[in-house]
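Cross-check.
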Amino acid sequence: MKKLLLLLAFFSFLNAEEGIKKVVFDLTTGDLKVFEKKVLSGIAHQKSYYEGKMEELQAAVVIHGDAYKFFVKDVSSSPFKDDKELQKESTQLATRISSLVETYDVEFLMCNAGMKSKNIKKENIFSFVKIVPNSTIGLIDKQNEGYAYIPIAK
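Predicted model, tokenized:
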């Protein structure tokens, strides 16, 4: 009887995973238009597509390269303080990124090594962003969890 229950539990687990897709985005672009298209709009559209098929999309974004700037709370006290376009759009970006976390359960992971080299303080990063030792480790971990790899560069 125990073996039968174990077998049923195992197959239930396999079936539960069947309708789940996983993707990790390797975000390195500092281009606002690319970020808006591929992350802010793109992930929402992809999630909706899979929901329409009665499937789930789990999305994670590993942040490094030139992408740090989209995730700072106070642009004026960051290395990106001279980026006028970012200063103008920062409040709206914060709202849209937060919406991805709250509405679509997107996970954001930021490279700590790059934060240090760019002198970005943890206190100035959105609270929902998880810090990983470096981008490579974040990407390796997600890919080993079964996430498909998609680069987002210029």
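The first strand starts at residue 20 and ends at 27. The helical segments are 2-18, 32-52, 84-104, 112-117, 135-144. Passed to J.P. for a second look.
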